[in-house]
Every structure is written in C-alpha cells, then in structure tokens.
Amino acid sequence: MTDLFAPLTIRTVTLPNRIGISPMCQYCAGPDGRPTDWHLAHLLQRAIGGAGMVMAEATAVTADGRITPGDLGLWEDAQIPAHARLAAAIAHAGAVPAIQIGHAGRKASRAPAWDDAPADPGWEIKAPSAIPMGQFATPTMMTAEEIEALPALFAACAKRAVAAGYRLVELHAAHGYLLHQFLSPISNTRNDRWGGDFEGRTRLPIAIARAVREAVGEDLPLFVRVSHTDWIEGGWTTDQTIELSKRLKAAGIDGMDVSSGGIDPRQKIVLGPGYQVPGAEAVKQGAGMVVAAVGLITEPEPAQAIIAEGRADLVLLARATLRDPYWPMRAAVALGRVDAARTPPQYDRAWGSIARMGMRRETGSPMPALGE
User: Fold this and answer.
1) N or C of the chain: less Cβ packing under 10 Å?
2) Of residues 48, 4, 63, 51, the one with CA closest to residue 23
3) Catalytic residue among 177, 275, 326, 347
4) Facing residues of 56 across strands?
5) Is 177 a catalytic residue?
6) CA distance 369 to 363
7) pLDDT tens by residue, 226-272
8) pTM greater than 0.85 (yes/no)
C-alpha cells in the first residue's frame, strides 16, 4: 500500500514523501521581485519540517503580471541569484525545491491581501476580455499579439527557474488568474481563436505548456495548478478539467495540482475537510496523471487515506503548515512512520527520543552561508 511517506519519482526527480507545501503569497518582495530573508526563513523552515517538496509562491513572468507590488518575479536574469539562494536552502534541508509561475491578468495591480485595495501606485491590467473581477478595476482586453507573446514569456521564466535550481515548475492556471481567465467562459468572451468554444479557451494554456516543456527539456517535472470548477453555473467544470488535463499531458505536463474557484465573487463554494479531493480524484481517474490534492487537508489520518486509497498521489498543505511547520514530523509520529521522517541533528533535543525509536537523521552538514 502506498502511504504518505512513500517516495514519488516523476521523470528524474524523486520526492522523499508525498507531502508538499503549496505556494503561499507572502507579499513582501521589493519592487525588484526578488526573494527576501522572509522568503528564505518561511520556506526553509517548512523544508526543515520534513515536507518532501516545498513550492515558492506565485512568481510573475512579467512585471505587470504581478498580483501586488510585493510579489516575486523571474522576468529577468538579474532575479536568478536571489532565487538560487532560496532553492539551494530548500534542497539542502532535504526537500525538492519547486516554484509556481504565472500572470495575474485582471487580478493584478492589487495591494497585499490584508488591505483589499488597488495597488498605489498601480499599473494597467490586461485580460482576455474587458470584464472586471467583482469590484476590481476593469482590465484592457489583450491584443492577439500580446497573447501570442505569452508562451515565450512563460518559457523564458521557466528556464530561469531551472537555472536557479528549482527542480519542479508549476504553471498557475487556477484561482482566477490569467490562464484561468482564458479557460473560463465567465471571464473569456472573446470571439477569436483565443476564445469562444472549449478549443479556443484552452488554446493558450496548452501552447504555454508546450513552450515550457521545450524550454526546460525532458528531465524536469512540470505541473499545472487548475481550478477544477468555478462553482458558478455556466462556468468552467470538472469534466472540462479532465479533458484539458488529457491535452496538457500530451503537451508534456506530468501532474495536475487540483484546486477550485477564484474566478468570480459569485462563486458558491461548499467548504469542508478535503472538499476539493473529489476533483483531484476525478482528474486522476479521467486523465491518468499524477495528481496533487489540496484544500482543508489538516490532519495526518485523512491525508494518509487520500494517498492510500489512490485518490491522489501527493497532498499539498498550506495554512496547516503556517500553524505548524513541523506537520510532516507530527504526521510521521501519528501514523507510526517515524522510520521515514527526517529531522536534522541540530533538533535532537526536541526530536531525539523519537529518533532513538527509529527516526532516520540527516548528516547535519552545515548550511551554506546566507549570502552564498
């Protein structure tokens, strides 16, 4: 039986367990879009905590594709060294360093989430159609030339991510951001080749997937985060997600990170523990791909059941690990898998008794200097 602490190999990369850290925007990068000491402390702590994969937050492929002025970016080579520092620290702690890349579209030019206001100063926002997101500003409709330039921009960003040392790249096509805006008929009312029917609305994400795969080569795992449903009548559906996943698989995508919602404030989400797992399971069964499950997965036993029952291959956690960065270690104890957990010897005073019961310790080689 596959369990939460079984390794997962995708192409040439092996995750030591099935626990991943979801990308979580921190809104504290400078205008240069580079990771700060906060990002290092935030993600390194979760890598030390035992997660098999740690994913950096949504990272913009262009400066005007940021959600807020405090978002990370990889739109130029000058940003690579700061990302390399972050990726190296995650890898040294034993986790696979990953990154999510994307473009905010009509949800760009905002203040940090806790302010719920436009950015000041802001910038022009662009989207598939000139339809605002709720009370947000109305975007400018993108030209065909601007759309056609996006695959190359995503591909260049992905190449920088590889150069920085990230070992898994995820394309952000969920939560109402640009690629989701193209997918959903709620936000895409174009009548050219980039809109209209399913073929038109999925054309850009598939083109980007192909371009990114070509740019990064065959060794690196590629994921796509998708909202499997808009939770709105007449919006994007789970059945459409399954069909899109099949086409993304043919374009070189290895895994689907299955979330939901975010396209419109009219959404009616039915919340509950693991409420998005049925969507992940449907994609896994329908598309035959590696699938990550997310959403109110907070305790070890349900997470273990999701993997053991074959409903998903990977469980991604977010808020639960903000409360407890050592969630994977706690899960190992709760599930009787201390043999598979990781703890550095520097933490033996806290975890030593568990280690003596069989937990494997890392070698404790020194961390690289923070400036390296």
Assistant:
1) N
2) 51
3) 177
4) 99
5) yes
6) 17
7) 999 999 999 999 999 999 999 999 999 999 999 999 999 999 998 99
8) yes
